[in-house]
Amino acid sequence: MTRQTTTTRDGAPQATADREPPPTLREFYENPAVPVASGDARSHRQALMLARALGPVRPGAPPATVLDVGCGDGSAAAIAATALPGHRIVGVDWSQDALRRAAARVPYAVRGELGDHGLPFADGGADAVLFSEVIEHLVDPDAALDELRRVLRPGGHLMLSTPNLAAWYNRGLLLAGVQPVFSEVSMRGIHGRPGTQVVGHLRLYTARALRGFLPACGFEVVRIAGAPYHDVPRPLRPLDRAACRLPSLASVLLVHARRRRE
């Protein structure tokens, strides 16, 4: 607890209420109360995109190695495994709490991070990377994509998903002067937008932004699709599912990109 002070008009110090200091990012994501799982609808759609890209394991050929970077509790990796029988899926996260939960869902759960030390994998060692609802939490997304590009083989697949700043309802909220859904102005609470839960979003993207950003990081965008958001009020869910037909309006952006071949 820290005691904040202000001054009165005559310059005398005046104590204010005690206030908890904001958590560091590491403390925030190590908190078990912070959600680490992707929505099932997003995970299923992303897994099917990857299954179409990789295809089945061919007779006499080794299985593909798929890294779920930022795997959280392993739920998205477990869903991917059902769509990718025979392929090798490895969950990767730096949160020990998340890895303990992931170990119950995936056969391999490895500690790794996208920071200074990098991921514990060789250059070009992965055939595909799942990057589900991670990029919006990063201070340095450029360095993160550089690291993902390093561990992917040339032509390897990147399956990225992230909330859409330009989702259909956010366009209406902004016109009304309301803070968009998914955006956050504080680590302590929600201010000025719908919702009640802080999830630590630092950056938000549109489909247009990703079409420019990913090629700048050495990836070729193959396809952008849309996915619904599980927290949309029930009466609006049919409209949210319909918006997925036009990805630029969808709640969640699903991107299939490939590492460019040198």
Automatic annotation (TrEMBL):
InterPro entries: SAM-dependent_MTases_sf (IPR029063)
Residues of the signal peptide: none
Domain of life of the native organism: Bacteria
Gene Ontology molecular function: methyltransferase activity
Disordered, as annotated region: 1-25
Gene Ontology biological-process entries: antibiotic biosynthetic process
Name of this chain's protein: SAM-dependent methyltransferase
